[in-house]
Amino acid sequence: MPTVLRCESLVRRLGERDVVRGASLDLDEAESIALVGPSGCGKTTLLQMIGLLDRPTAGRVVLAGHDAWSLSDAVRAELRLAWIGFVFQQNNLVETLSARENVALPAWRLGASRREAERSADALLDRFGLTARRDAPAAELSVGEAQRVAIARALVNRPRLVLADEPTGSLDSASADVVMEALTAAAALGAALLVVTHDPRIAARAGRTVSIHDGRL
Q: Which residue in 29, 59, 86, 214 could disulfide with 10, CB within 3.0 to 4.6 Å?
């Protein structure tokens, strides 16, 4: 399978401490990896570097054949929008927008018409059992509903790389199963999937598991 993501010797230094120490990882098309490790070991920091949100102190993130952190801010933002779906620990929804508008927003930004973006959003919201809540402002959603909306938003542009930081941490077991089925289905359609999780049931659904301790993979 073609390699979607290549991390080469990533380092992230905060003050005098290296939070991530020389992490190297390849992730292929249609492959899923669970990233596990104790709290504070560097999982989220590594995910943010891969997701082009946090600049590495050293090392490279190669996406679409490009050293992503050597690109201009504008080009890197376009690459992130087109290639990466990111599910945050805190859902990061726009509270003044409806569930439907939150999911549709990345598709609008990528160039879809409003109708096309909303059609894609509606299909994902239906998949996550949220059709009745599509017009609700994000601020009025429950924690579990908001997280499912955030995952739908991450998938709306059919990204090549899906990064999920504890995507089921706020969900009951039934909702967690729905979410993981959607994420693994995205991988089955060709997306590469990297999931940070503390849940052994979630980790077991990935194709392989990588552990991180004290910033080292």
A: 59
Number of domains forming the structure of the chain? 1
Please tell me the distance from the alpha carbon of residue 21 to that of residue 116, in angstroms, as a whole number. Answer: 43
CATH at 197: 3.40.50.300
Residue pair 34/47 in contact (Cβ under 8 Å)? The answer is no
User: What is the rounded distance in angstroms from the CA atom of residue 79 to the CA atom of residue 61?
Assistant: 12
pLDDT tens-digit series, residues 137-196: 999 998 888 888 998 999 999 999 999 998 887 778 887 887 788 888 787 778 899 999
Residue 162 forms part of a structural domain: yes
Count the neighbouring beta carbons within 10 Å of the beta carbon of residue 104.
28
pTM over cut 0.85: yes
